[in-house]
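Hi all, a correction to my earlier message: I attached the wrong file for Peroxidase. Here's the right sequence:
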Amino acid sequence: MAASKRSVVSCFFLVLLLAEANAQGLKVGFYSKTCPQVEGIVKKVVFAAMKKAPTLGAPLLRMFFHDCFVRGCDGSILLDSSNNQAEKNAVPNLSLRGFGIIDDSKAALEKVCPGIVSCSDILALIARDAVVALEGPTWEVETGRRDGRVSNINEVNLPSPFDNITKLITEFSTKGLNEKDLVVLSGGHTIGMGHCPLMSNRLYNFTGRGDSDPSLDSEYASNLRKKCKPADTTTALEMDPGSFKTFDVSYFKLVAKRRGLFQSDAALLDNSKTRGYVLQQARGSTFFHDFGVSMVKMGRNGVLTGRAGEIRSMCRVRN
Ligand code: HEM
Ligand SMILES: *[C@@H]1O[C@H](CO)[C@@H](O)[C@H](O)[C@H]1NC(C)=O
Ligand SMILES: *[C@@H]1O[C@H](CO)[C@@H](O)[C@H](O)[C@H]1NC(C)=O
Ligand SMILES: CC(=O)N[C@H]1CO[C@H](CO)[C@@H](O)[C@@H]1O
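and the right structure:
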């Protein structure tokens, strides 16, 4: 009797512990009973789209970062402007694209399990699938997010490519992400492009004396000056030249060689902890594993679960 009572009690605590473990109600396989096909359906849409347009992978990964850093991962980046200007109209959205892939995934899911899967979860799955499609790592995506009803351009306060390391560390820590997460997630810049005006200060007149950024490798700087002329606002550069369509470890090799594109990339060398992680990641042994871990952590930021928010029927508009 005593023994069975004790096991009931310890079982109770085990359940409590497990409930605690999956942050705020997220878990792997949240839809395993209500929409078991969800992951397969999303993956099929993403892979089909990326087969035609592999460069879509980068903005899709970036979109999840922008969603999670503003109001939490609640799909607010997906809402179109209505009575107010939405997040997606803010300047850093410059190159966000691929919204159609979220729409297509949602439409496919609504046919099979209507009203079940949130747009914020779809985006979390798409970010993972986009990385897999570019030969990067895979990880188990926690689901169970619900969609927010608000998206406001005035709330967009994302890390800037001009930020120094102190600012970056603070910005990430307010989202529950530490120095290691900052370095690992910056590795997302192993794919995709960045536009000249976000870095050309590093090439021309860095301190007002017609100089370039001393933290940028000078040979690399002269190559970049050929591509970005002083007033060029439209050219985009490969952030990881040579393999910008492959998710690999070369971003860290570049940063370690002082060839990171943005000041925010170069800044990772300015703190002993983040510098240590850059050099460690450049050796390549743990980046793929670490990236999944940090993506899951980022995906827990400010989520709506349980009865909060809603399940949108179309990702661009609230119900
Ligand atoms: C550490 C702070 C970060 C800053 C300051 C930053 C800044 C930027 C900037 C300025 C661009 C270029 C946008 C353009 O010119 O169109 C960019 C592109 C990109 N970022 Fe970040 N980013 C950061 C972190 C992240 C994270 C955490 C991820 C995802 C894990 C990410 C993924 C990407 C990707 C994939 C692109 C390429 C997008 C494309 O090709 O369209 N970034 N980022
Ligand atoms: C980093 O940037 C912040 C705000 O942009 C600034 O206040 C601070 O002085 C800078 N720190 C260093 C070490 O340059
Ligand atoms: C460089 O910056 C300084 C100070 O802002 C300015 O006076 C000067 O005209 C600039 N030179 C060039 C070549 O743009
Ligand atoms: C895709 C998208 O919504 N792009 C918008 C980004 O923000 C600018 C204004 O800063 C708009 O003009 C774009 O339409």
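Sorry for the mix-up. The chain has two domains: 11-158, 165-297.
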